[in-house]
Design a protein that fits this description.
The complex is a heterodimer of chains A (about 170) and B (about 400). Chain A has about 170 residues and is α+β, with helices and mostly antiparallel strands. Chain A contains five helices and five strands; from the N terminus they run ααβαββββαα. Chain A has a five-stranded antiparallel sheet, with helices on both faces. The chains are: A alpha+beta (about 170), B alpha+beta (about 400).
């Protein structure tokens, strides 16, 4: 390959890099997600506190100890909204879940930081979570088709969906 | 008497009032303390123990695989069958670091075959800076995996079926194949991903064992590699529907590297593939076709005594079915058929090596006790002996990723 072409390609790359860099891809802010979920009637956030027993169950769902003992959430009527974070391969994915009557009503990606596996934010992928409930073993009662090359991001989304349903159950029992 | 009674009533009222005030005070004090504790916990979770704290800087990951190969069946006349083998084939560590919200570093350091004494190697397979501008345009620069086929970029053991990687993506697409350079990638439209860039190239001088290994030996692994010739690559994938990926990729570059023995011949290598995968419910189907074209093959063979071909190709189809899932556990038998020919079209200065063309059926199963841990077993039946490793093989494997 001609070296001039390489030089031109590098110059183009530098030009691109010199351009204004955007932050990590944020698709929705928390406020936008909540407005989407509840309209203009977004309630005040409430806090769910984990105790020793519930933290243990969260660890079972996530495969690691929870990063926090207090989880913020929003509730209006039978619906609750949860903004959660889990690592896909290397970076945390921020996702929002709306749970209505113990079922996932909506799943959204708020921020995606990995350099591969963006497909998890597509409506066609996220639609698969709609209607999902927790089984007795705290797994989803419906399958989620994977994405080639994004197995870890898909797994992280499934874990967060399970966690949102579990948290919703705890918050209703409080 | 009346005065005494009145004073008693006033006293009791006063003391009652005093008691009530004290309880309310105590409740208020407790409430204050609870609020302070909650505030402290919230602060700690935000600044220290929380996800943001540890994920913002350095990350570590890895994968590994242990293989057992039992060689059976016929070997070519005059050859003795290879001994069975047990090998911690790959031990890999990923290190990543995020500098800010748009620049990060990613790396993959691999120890092959457990040590460096018996043909093993310590290899830097990835070490690049990743610049995230937008979902449409990102750039990476450094050492990275060439974006061809499935396995070259995604080869953590729990992500593929069978103990060993498939033959087409090792002998036609020379996985694991990495080069140094720069590449742009992103989404052109929802569901459509692209990657395109410039990298170092292979070296024709090292097309050794071409008739059985294709272009594998000519990879220079960015280790004091020749840089007289460069290559370009491109890839386009559609994955807009859940479970579906369809795409194509190409690499083209000269491999002559100004070697005087080639008298200025370009020795251009063009390698391309088309691939598709569909994962739906319990099914997981995969197919890939890859083909390579090499110019000046005759000159390469004359200059270095190789058996390089003008054209080589391979394809495979694979089907797996997840028969049993229980919580995180998963069990899936699979079957794969592969066919390849590393000398599909040869120049007339070499004789065709009978071993260059082969096909193989692989039947086996993966069991995941956890999505990131896998136990594998399979049986392979070749059309003709795969060298001294025979024409039948039984494999066991253990793998993980994190």
């Amino acid at each position: 390959m001609n070296k001039n072409m390489i030089a031109a390609a590098c110059a183009l790359l530098l030009l691109v890099m010199a351009g204004s860099a955007q932050a990590i891809q944020q698709y929705l802010t928390s406020e936008q997600f909540l407005t989407e979920a509840f309209g203009n009637e977004v309630s005040k956030p409430q806090a769910l506190w984990l105790n020793k027993e519930t933290a243990k169950q969260v660890e079972k769902i996530l495969g690691h100890a929870p990063h926090q003992t207090r989880q913020r959430y929003w509730r209006t009527g039978n619906s609750s909204a949860w903004i959660l974070e889990e690592i896909g391969k290397e970076e945390p994915i921020t996702a929002g879940f709306v749970v209505t009557d113990g079922r996932i009503a909506q799943a959204r990606i708020l921020t995606y930081r990995e350099s591969r596996g963006w497909e998890v934010r597509y409506p066609a992928f996220l639609k698969q979570f709609q209607g999902a409930q927790l089984q007795v073993d705290d797994h989803l009662n419906q399958p989620v088709d994977g994405i080639s090359g994004a197995t870890l991001s898909v797994n992280a989304m499934v874990r967060m969906a399970r966690l949102a349903l579990y948290f919703d159950r705890l918050s209703r029992a409080e | 008497m009346q005065k005494k009674l009145l004073s008693l009533i006033v006293l009791s009222m006063l003391s009652g009032h005093a008691m009530a005030t004290s309880i309310e005070d105590k409740i208020d004090m407790l409430q204050d303390e609870i609020d302070q504790l909650k505030a402290k916990a919230a602060y700690a979770e935000k600044n220290e123990g929380g996800m943001k704290g540890f994920a913002n800087n350095t990350t570590v990951g890895g994968y590994g695989e242990l293989h057992y190969n039992n060689f059976k069946g016929d070997v070519p006349a005059g050859e003795k069958r290879a001994k069975d083998e047990i090998d911690f084939h790959r031990f890999v560590l990923f290190f990543g670091h995020r500098f800010n919200d748009w620049i990060s570093f990613k790396s993959e350091l691999e120890l092959e075959h457990s040590n460096t004494e018996n043909g093993g190697a310590v290899e830097l397979e990835q070490a690049y800076l990743d610049f995230n501008f937008s979902e449409k345009l990102n750039a990476k620069a450094g050492i990275f995996l060439m974006p061809l086929g499935f396995i070259n970029e995604t080869h953590e053991p729990p992500t593929f079926y069978g103990v060993e990687r498939n033959f087409v993506e090792t002998r036609i697409i020379p996985s694991t194949w990495w080069e140094a350079g720069a590449s742009l990638y992103g989404e052109v439209a929802p569901g459509w991903k692209y990657q395109a860039g410039v990298t170092s190239s292979l070296a024709a001088e090292h097309f050794e064992k071409f008739s059985t290994k294709g272009v594998r030996e000519a990879r220079r692994n960015v280790s004091e590699a020749p840089a007289e010739d460069f290559g370009v690559h491109g890839r386009l994938d559609y994955s807009g529907l859940p479970g579906l990926t369809v795409g194509a990729s190409v690499f083209t570059g000269n491999t002559g590297q100004d070697n005087p023995a080639l008298n200025g011949a370009d020795a251009r290598l063009t390698l391309w593939d088309v691939h598709a995968r569909y994962q739906a419910d319990k099914f997981d189907l995969r197919a890939l076709y890859a083909q390579g074209h090499l110019s000046d093959a005759a000159k390469i063979n004359d200059a270095f005594g190789h058996e390089a071909a003008n054209r080589f190709y391979g394809w495979y189809m694979e089907a797996a079915y997840h028969v049993w899932k229980n919580g995180e556990q998963d069990f899936a038998p699979f079957v794969r058929y592969e066919k390849w020919d590393t000398q599909a079209d040869i120049p007339n200065n070499i004789a065709r090596n009978d071993a260059s063309e082969n096909d193989v059926w692989t039947i086996g199963a993966n069991y995941w006790p956890h999505p990131q841990v896998v136990l594998k077993a399979d049986y392979q039946k070749f059309d003709k002996p795969d060298g001294d490793k025979g024409d039948k093989r039984f494999n066991l494997g253990l793998g993980y990723m994190f």
